[in-house]
């Protein structure tokens, strides 16, 4: 296992805001809601102008994903324009190294109530039998959107996961670049690309990333965990 470190999304955001003279102390849901205010999001966009992804998996069941994340290659696979997030079973207000004991606290949780699965289900108005594990892509923090959910069909081993993730990240990066050039919505372009490649997906209901993340932090907080990223992708 390589030396792979993760840090909370909240800490990344606070660091970005602090560089602009705006400071927040880590704290409760009210702080999270203030952190995701429209004014603060405008500042954050100056530091990261790409797209967001959330990877939902169960560390005991989806062992290939666990190994893939711990290997550290998700950083180079996703590139600088995709911020990949996932849940950790412990707070990570400062960098935390992933090791053999990481993800152990939630390992016995039933797949029906695992926090990462719960917050993904919250994107859908009507009950949908989502196949897990999977990854969600968002376009913007504030605007209403229909995020895209894609099932990771083979999570049995690290190589299989890496192959699938590299394909999805490649399609996502191309869709993002096309959206910049054409002015068209990234998610609609990505959906067309997935169709062409015969990759099934689901579209979530109208929701802003801000609304979803605030609720996600609330759910994760109940389990004393965090939403983290492997590297600090916010641009200086």
How is the secondary structure organized here?
Layout: E1 4-8, H1 9-18, H2 29-35, H3 38-44, E2 51-56, H4 63-71, H5 74-78, E3 82-88, E4 96-98, H6 115-121, E5 134-138, E6 148-151, H7 158-182, H8 186-196, E7 202-203, H9 209-222, E8 226-229
Parallel strand pairs: 2-3
Antiparallel strand pairs: 1-4, 1-8, 2-5, 3-8, 5-6, 6-7
Tell me about this structure.
With 236 residues, the protein is α+β, with helices and mostly antiparallel strands. The protein has one domain. 40% of the residues lie in helices and 15% in strands. It has helices at residues 9-18, 29-35, 38-44, 63-71, 74-78, 115-121, 158-182, 186-196, 209-222; strands at residues 4-8, 51-56, 82-88, 96-98, 134-138, 148-151, 202-203, 226-229. Helix 4 packs across helix 7 (158-182). The chain is globular, with a radius of gyration of 17 Å. Mean pLDDT is 88; it is low at 232-236.
């Amino acid at each position: 296992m390589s030396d792979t470190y993760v840090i909370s999304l909240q800490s990344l955001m606070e660091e970005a805001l602090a560089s602009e003279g705006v400071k927040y102390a880590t704290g409760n849901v009210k702080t999270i809601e203030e952190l995701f205010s429209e004014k603060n999001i405008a500042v954050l966009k100056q530091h990261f102008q790409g797209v967001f992804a959330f990877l939902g998996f169960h560390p005991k069941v989806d062992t290939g994903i666990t190994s893939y994340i711990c290997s550290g290659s998700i950083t180079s696979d996703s590139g600088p324009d995709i911020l990949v997030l996932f849940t950790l079973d412990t707070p990570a207000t400062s960098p935390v190294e992933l090791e053999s004991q990481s993800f152990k606290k939630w390992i016995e949780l039933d797949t029906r109530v695992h926090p990462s699965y719960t917050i993904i289900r919250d994107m859908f108005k009507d009950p949908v039998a989502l196949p897990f594990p999977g990854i969600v892509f968002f376009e913007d923090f504030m605007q209403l959107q229909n995020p895209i959910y894609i099932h990771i069909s083979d999570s049995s081993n690290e190589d299989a996961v890496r192959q699938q993730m590299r394909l999805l990240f490649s399609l996502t990066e191309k869709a993002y670049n096309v959206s910049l050039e054409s002015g068209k919505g990234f998610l609609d372009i990505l959906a067309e690309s997935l169709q062409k490649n015969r990759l099934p997906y689901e579209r979530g209901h109208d929701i802003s990333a801000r609304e979803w993340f605030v609720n996600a932090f609330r759910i994760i907080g109940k389990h004393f965990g965090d939403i983290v990223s492997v590297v600090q992708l916010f641009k200086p």
